[in-house]
Amino acid sequence: MADGGASAETDGPAGPADYWAPGSHILWRYRENGGPHVHIARPVTVVRDDAELLAVWLAPGTECVKPVLADGTPVHLEPLSSRYTKPRTVQRDRWFGTGVLKLARPGEAWSVWLFWDPGWRFKNWYVNLEEPLTRWEGGVDSEDHFLDISVHPDRTWHWRDEDEFAQAQRDRLMDPAQAERVRRAGRAAVAEIRAWGSPFADGWEDWRPDPAWPVPSLPGDWDRTPAHASS
């Protein structure tokens, strides 16, 4: 579907300009929409990190942080009309089901996630429209932009969460200029899909995690403010 300073539980480079080695543990986080706080934090294992791509693995069973309504109700169970206006908090949970491979290119306003069904049967790519990732010592931060795209193995695709994108604008979580930037990023992603460019044509659906990798732990200071950050 977002913090700073190194900790014993989060392995990272000395500064944002460095790259993480494969097997390093970092945090993939999202800030709340319309606010400064982190409301999603997922410990992940670095698969690849260089000037062209950051690839990370979110393993099944990973302890994460997710938003919920103040009374503990899961966000997706709240009617759309009040989903983004009711008070929220966060809670710890675990990532159930199969793992997710996340791919992000520097400066790009979306990341691409790969999902599998049990038995490693490839299910789909998922284009998550978001702020370009900001790197810091312990991971990467972003802000979700509601609108998404599903891409299927037969190369067909469709928009997702258009209703949430519209509601976010009604609730003033994004202004018209930002909404247009999101639409523009979506059109650019669709152009990549139609051209069957990277990462869709790169064979990532055949990738498998190293079975020796441990499941990363969620650090106690998962919501800390980055000391240094860069795009």
UniProtKB/TrEMBL annotation:
Q: Which InterPro entries match?
A: DUF402 (IPR007295), FomD-like_sf (IPR035930), Ntdp-like (IPR050212)
> Which SUPFAM superfamilies does the protein's record reference?
FomD-like (SSF159234)
In what ranges is there compositional bias, type Basic and acidic residues? 221-231
| Domain DUF402: residue ranges | 80-197
Pfam families per UniProt: DUF402 (PF04167)
Q: What domain of life is recorded for the organism? A: Bacteria
Q: Which segments carry the region annotation Disordered?
A: 205-231
> Which key words are in the record?
Hydrolase
- Any idea what this protein is called? DUF402 domain-containing protein
Q: Which organism is it from?
A: Streptomyces salinarius
